[in-house]
Structure formats: C-alpha cells, structure tokens
Amino acid sequence: MDTKSKNINEESIFQEEIKKSNKRKSRSGNIFKKYIVVLLTFISIACAILSLREIKANIRYIIPGGIYLNGDLSNNISDYINLVKDYSIYYKSLEYASDNNNITQNDIDICKAELVDKVNKEYENYRNDKYNEESFSNLTYEEQQKILSEEKEKITEKYTLNDEEMKEYILNRKGNSASDLNNKINNNLLEQALTLYATQFSSLELNGCIGDYCSVKSGFAFKSSWWTNSGIRVIKIGSINQDNLNLLECSYVDEDKADKAKDFVVKAGDLLIAMTGATIGKFAMVPYSSEMLLVNQRVGKFFLGNNPVEKLPFIYCTLKQPEVYGEVVNRGQGSAQPNISASDIMSIPCVIPSQDAINDFNNTSQPLFDLIISNQRENQHLSELRNALLPKLMSGELDVSNIEI
Questions:
Q1: How many CB atoms neighbour CB 380 within 10 A?
Q2: Please, which residues have CB within 8 angstroms of residue 164's CB and are 6 or more apart in sequence?
Q3: C-alpha to C-alpha distance for 34 and 42, rounded to whole angstroms
Q4: Phi and psi of 403, rounded to 5°?
Q5: Taking 70 as the threshold, does the pLDDT of residue 104 lie above it?
Q6: Residues with Cβ < 8 Å from 90, sequence gap 6 or more?
Q7: Would you tell me which of 112, 302, 352, 387 could form a disulfide with 271, CB atoms 3.0–4.6 Å apart?
C-alpha cells in the first residue's frame, strides 16, 4: 500500500473514532439531562403534595367559626387545661388533704414567703397612712420610729404561726388551689367565646331585642313561712355573683312546696339574672348539679329550652356586651330600690343575626360553656368539702385514710 493510501485510511479511522467519541458524549449528556428532568419532576411533585397538605391543614383557619377555636393558640390552651386539671386532682384528694406527710418543705417555704409578703404589705399601708397624718408628722424621728416599730411587731406577731396553725394554713391553701385553677380556666374559656362573638357579630347593628331570642320570667314567690334548714335548694338574689352562682348561699323548702314551683326548676346551662337590689344586672349560669334547684322571685330565668346549654352561649355573650349590660342596669334605676322587670329585660336592644349564624356560634361555643359549668360545679363541691371536712381532718376527728377516691 502506497503512502498516500495509508494516510487516507488512517484519516478515516481517526474520523470514525471521533464520531464514536461524540456519540458516547451525546449519550452521556442525554442520560444526565434525563436524570435532571426526573429529579426536578420529583421535587415539583413533592412540593405540590406538601403544599396541598399544608392548605388542607390550615383551611379551617379561614372558616369564621374556627378562627379562634381551631388555632394553635387554642390547642396550646387545651393542652394547658388538661395539665392543670391533672394538677388540680392532686390537691382535691381527701387522702392527700388528710395526710400531714404530704406537706413538703416547698409547701412550707411558699407559705412562709406569702406570710412575710402579707406582713410587709400591711405594714407598708400602715406606714403610708401614718405619714399622711399631720399629728404623726409633727413627732420627732425617734418617736415616729418607735410607733412604727411597735406596729411592725404587732403585724409580724399576727402572721407568725405555730406548727398546727401553719399546717392548717398549708392545707387550706392546697384545698383552694383547684378552685383557683378552675376559675382561671373558666376566665380563659369565656374570653375565647367573647372573642369569637366579637369576630362574628360586633360589626352588626342592634336590630332586635333579647325577647326575640328567648323569654325571661321572674322566679316563684315562695312564702317566708316555707323556708326550712334543709330540703330543696332555692336560688335567691344573694346566690348570684357575676359569672358565678354560689349554691352555698341558698335557702331551702320542703319537697311538697317545690311542686308548686315546677316551672322554675333550673338545670345545668340555665341563665339567671338579679332583678333587684345592689346586685341588679348580675347574671350567672347554673352549674351541673345532681339535685333539684329552684328559683326565687326577683331572680330572672332565661327560658332556653329543655337543653339550655345549647342556646346559652349566644345570650350569655350578648349580656356581656357593654351596651346591653349597661342598659339592664340603667333601666333598673330611678327608685330607692333598683328594680327591673322581666319585660324590661326582654325589650333591651341587641344584635339578632340570622338563625344560621346563631346556630353556628352556639354549636361552636357550646363545648366551652360545657366545661365552664362543669368546673363551676367542681368548685362548689370543693367548697362544700373544705367547709365540712377540713376542721374534722385537722382535729383528727375524721379519718379518711382508708377511703378510696
């Protein structure tokens, strides 16, 4: 083969090698591109799935009825409620309250600190009052200090407890802890309901009156000769504190008299209002109770149906509105004895939304009010236990170490 032919063949082989090399590079590049496309597709699909899940998880936040009750804050509050209810059970145990061995050094330290704080506050108030007296200001510094020092000793002595007194102080404090926790929980739950009410209805005009939602009647006129020391409880004006009904401040009638007042039997979720006297306008819901409860005259009952807690949220939050509550109080003025009639209450202007809106609000808020009235009943029970048992537990008259709680 001549030199020229040989060069041509070598050139052809070289070109073929270049083509093969380019093909390999092209295939490699295509594979890389396909890999990138697959990866980007996977990332896009994953992002779309996560976005849809996020939207689904948060779609409830844009629903008016769920803005406050389904939010993260509400969930945190729910967790807190469960924790403090567990915590309160520890202090509600009769076995715990009766066992002196459960008084810890931490209990003692906390109570001693509280007593010191009481001493300092009382002394500070006394000292400030004395310095406002002209006769005290005219005394010499030494005379002033002598008076103040003597008073400080008296106050300190008043709050200095011996071992038995300290034990009673600590056990009382533990007995009150569950009630305090329940009250804090209830205040929080009520604030949630009021916030939801404001969100849904605050922009609406006063287009109706309380009577458009429910009727109100004054309680039964029990005769004074019917009162007894035990029997069926009768709720009177003095039983009503704002947002709280004190069933320990009731009067009693015999069962045969209760039959005459059957229209004024109240149950859990019923709403009562003071219609006369210094407490006029104060209202409270009836807590859960296993016993019959009646309503005396001048205590107004809002008639909310057979299961009153279902309609309770809307009317309760309505009465909480300043313009409504203020009108209740104002209409009761004008005489030596403040007084308002049931018809006056029913005619007070308020917001009356559509029935669907009211139902939605009541359905959403009812669980809050269920828990409130349940906690209120627990507080009543705790007060009864403390008043009846603590003196006997302290004296050793009652032994409950073998009682199963």
A1: 19
A2: 394
A3: 12
A4: -80, 135
A5: yes
A6: 96
A7: 302
For the stretch 308-326, what's the b/e string if a residue is b when 16 or more beta carbons lie within 10 angstroms of its beta carbon?
bbbbbbbbbbbbbbeebbe
Rounded to whole angstroms, the Cα distance separating 291 from 303 reads 19
Residue-level pLDDT at 67: 42
CA 192 to CA 186: how far, in whole Å? 10
Cα gap 81→89, rounded to integer Å: 12
Is the separation of the CB atoms in 207 and 133 below 8 Å? no
Long-range (24+ apart) CB contacts under 8 A made by 320-329 are: 320/194, 320/197, 321/350, 321/351, 323/206, 324/210, 324/348, 324/349, 324/350, 325/281, 328/273, 328/280, 328/281, 329/280, 329/281
- The token pair that represents 239 in the structure block: 């039983």
Alpha carbon separation from 139 to 124, 132, 135, 153, 405 (Å, rounded):
19, 13, 7, 20, 62
**For the chain, counts of helices (H) and of strands (E):** 12, 12
Q: Where are the extended beta strands (E) located within 84-207?
A: none
- Greater pLDDT, 30 or 251: 251
Q: pLDDT at position 82, please?
A: 55
Distance CA(107)–CA(100), nearest Å, equals: 12
Query: Alpha-carbon distance 217 to 301, whole Å?
Result: 5
152-205 pLDDT, tens digit per residue, is 999 999 999 888 888 778 777 766 666 677 778 888 889 999 999 999 999 999
- Which two structure tokens, joined as six digits, stand for 202? 């605050």
Sign of CA dihedral 3, 4, 9, 14: positive
